[in-house]
Design goal:
By secondary structure, the protein is an all-alpha fold. About 50% of the residues lie in helices and about 0% in strands.
Length: about 80
């Protein structure tokens, strides 16, 4: 498990360029905030976080927060 894996990959769906966009958003989020967008003590918890949680963008400056919000959408479509 990696904190940069896209939800569609975890669900076993077709992987498109949207997975790269999601991963980039996770990397930018971590670079800006100093913490990963998704965490878990185990791989299962990490996967659950990616699938179910939305990272807080409270400490991310606008308009970057808006861009990251769009990039972190759980549905690749």
């Amino acid at each position: 498990g990696t904190p940069y894996i896209a939800p569609e990959q975890l669900r076993g769906e077709d992987v498109t360029g949207a997975a790269d966009v999601f991963a980039l958003a996770c990397i930018v989020y971590e670079a800006v905030t100093g913490t990963p967008a998704f965490t878990g003590r185990t791989t299962a918890e990490l996967c659950e976080a990616v699938l179910q949680k939305t990272p807080s963008l409270a400490n991310v400056p606008e308009p970057l927060a808006e861009v990251l919000s769009a990039m972190l959408i759980k549905d690749a479509a």
